[in-house]
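Tokens as discussed.
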């Protein structure tokens, strides 16, 4: 998921990679549950849609200039932040 996201097609590839990463994480969790005090087996801090969206919003609020132009890269960064930002 470290490839540059700068086109619609690369954004779709990024989303597919995130989807596969989440599925793999759920499979690992089913085999061996992680501590409730840290990320799950795949490194996901935010495992509900509510916490995922809250983290995306918080990351955008905390780290972005309000005048920044939206881009595919920014969308991808925000989604990645939804996975891990606390």
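Sequence:
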């Amino acid at each position: 998921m470290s490839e540059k996201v700068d086109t619609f097609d690369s954004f779709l590839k990024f989303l597919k990679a995130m989807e596969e990463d989440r599925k793999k994480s759920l499979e690992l969790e089913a085999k061996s549950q992680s501590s409730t005090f840290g990320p799950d087996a795949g490194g996901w801090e935010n495992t509900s849609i509510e916490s995922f969206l809250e983290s995306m919003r918080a990351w955008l609020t905390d780290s972005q200039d309000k005048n920044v132009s939206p881009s595919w890269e920014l969308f991808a960064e925000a989604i990645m932040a939804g996975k891990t930002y606390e």
